[in-house]
Design goal:
Helix content: 25-40%
Oligomer: single chain
Radius of gyration: 19 Å
């Protein structure tokens, strides 16, 4: 097979496939049920999107919801779902970051007006709407300067800081798009919002930007997802 690669699966079998085949393609070739249950993949020990093309010989695992590692990706994607909902309802908000945690996730926001408990209820409802729309977590790559320019134009000072701190001038940056929401993020993510079935927003707490009380005070929304 021209331009082929060899993919080794956990059962020891090896598939010869064209370069550029994705983990999702391989899952579909094994069984439709596996493809429907898959959330993320692990290639040579690294977590990757199911839609990332495989370009070299790879040891591959397809992870489903019962795999502990996929839960952290699921929660990270839930944090992105929250951010997408915030921008839908409160478009003036500026975005920080939204990592998974051992119990759920949080996302940091800069917004002069405090979020209320009623706002959390509205955000949860909007998250449910976006989940029902089954919006893909689509990864795109931007030239660093273009990404910086975009986030600067929108006043997203925290995103600009992360790009400047964690990327080099000559590299492309990884952007995940979820509907109207764009985030500088290395991923990986689950395939789409429709895969998120159960979540709950828990509370709002204060946090200073970069942990410095001289900086802007952020609002950290905590949630859980399972």
């Amino acid at each position: 097979m021209a331009n082929s690669i060899h993919v080794k699966l956990p059962d020891g079998s090896v598939k010869e496939v064209p370069a550029g085949t994705t983990a999702l393609d391989i899952a579909k070739s094994i069984s439709p049920r596996l493809a429907d249950a898959a959330l993320v993949a692990k290639a040579d020990g690294d977590l990757i999107d199911l839609t990332k093309p495989l370009e070299k010989d790879t040891d591959l695992r397809i992870l489903k919801e019962q795999d502990p590692e996929s839960l952290m990706v699921y929660r990270h994607s839930s944090a992105h779902l929250l951010a997408a909902a915030v921008l839908e309802l409160f478009p003036e908000t500026k975005l920080g970051h939204g990592p998974p945690t051992d119990t759920g996730f949080f996302y940091d926001f800069y917004r002069p007006t405090p979020f209320t408990n009623e706002d959390l209820e509205k955000l949860e409802k909007k998250m449910q709407e976006l989940a029902q729309q089954d919006i893909p977590y689509a990864r795109e790559f931007y030239p660093r300067a273009e990404g910086l320019e975009k986030f600067k134009a929108e006043g997203d000072f925290m995103k600009c800081h992360f790009i400047e701190q964690f990327t080099k001038p000559d590299e492309k940056i990884s952007i995940y798009k979820t509907g109207k929401f764009l985030d500088f993020c290395r991923g990986p993510h689950i395939p789409s919002t429709g895969r998120i079935k159960a979540f709950k927003l828990l509370s709002v707490a204060g946090a200073y930007w970069l942990g410095d009380e001289k900086n802007q005070q952020l609002q950290r929304i905590y949630g859980t997802a399972f």
